[in-house]
What does this fold into?
Amino acid sequence: MNFIVLKYERIDSTNTEALDQARRGADEGLCIVAREQTAGRGRHGRTWVSEKDAGLYFSLILRPKLDPQFLPLITLMAAVAVHDALEEMFRIECDIKWVNDIHVNQKKICGILAETSETEKGPAVVVGIGINFKSSNFSPELAATVTAIETEAGAPASTEKFLPVLTAFLEKFCDILYGIDGPRKIREEWTKRSSYAAGKNVRVAIGDEMIYGTTRGIEQNGALRLELQSREIKIIHAGDVEQLREDLLQRHEGHKETV
Ligand code: BTN
It folds into this structure.
C-alpha cells in the first residue's frame, strides 16, 4: 500500500476530512493527521476530546478488497496494528477490549472509529485512530478509566516518531487481511491479543439495554459471542463491553436490564 500522509495543524475531525477526500477520489493509503481536532468524533456519537499535541489524531482511507461480510474485521485489524505498534515503540503491555479499544493496565489508551462511504470509486472505509499521549488534561473522573502513553511509558513520547511505526503495522495487517485466508488470520491475531476474547465476565450496554454474560470467542465477522447464564449464546454486533466483577455477574447473569 502506498501511504501518503497529509498533516494539518488544526482540523474539525480527521475522519470527516478523510471521508471527504475519499468521496473526491483519494486512493487507499491516504492518511490525515492533525495536531488538534475541534470536533473529534468517538463511537456512538460521542465527542473525542482532542487538545493540541495531547494525542495522535489519525485517519486512514481504505478501499477494501474484501467480501462485504468481512468489512467489520477492518476495525479488528486496526486494533491489532495499534496494539503491536504501541508495544514495539513504547514497551508497554496492551490489551484489546472488544471490539477495538486498546487498554493498558485496564485503562483506555486508544479508540478506533471506522466509518464507510459510497464513492464513485466504490466503497471506502475510513479508519480513525485516536491515541492519548499526554494525560495532563484529564479530569479526575476521566483519569479513573483513561490513560496515556507518557503515563504508562514514564517518559515523553513523540507522535511524529510513532507515526511511521503505526503505518508500518497497518500495512502489515492490511496485507494479511486482504491476502489468502485473511479474515481467519486477522481473527486469530486479534484473539491472541485480547483478554476479552474468551472467558471474560462482562456487561454489555446495547443502547439502553444491559446484558451480562461470559465471552466465548468471536464470529466470522468479528461479532462477540456472549454466553448467558441460560447457556444461550447471544451474538453482539455492537455495544460497549465492560469487564465485570464476579459478584456482579452472579447477580445479573442471564438477565436483561434497562438502564
Ligand atoms: C472511540 O470512541 O473510542 C473512537 C474514538 C476515535 C477518535 C479518532 S481521533 C482521529 C479520528 N478523527 C475523529 O474524529 N475520530 C477519530
Remarks:
- Residues 13-15, 37, 40-43, 46, 48, 57-59, 101, 111-113, 128-130 surround biotin (CB under 6 Å).
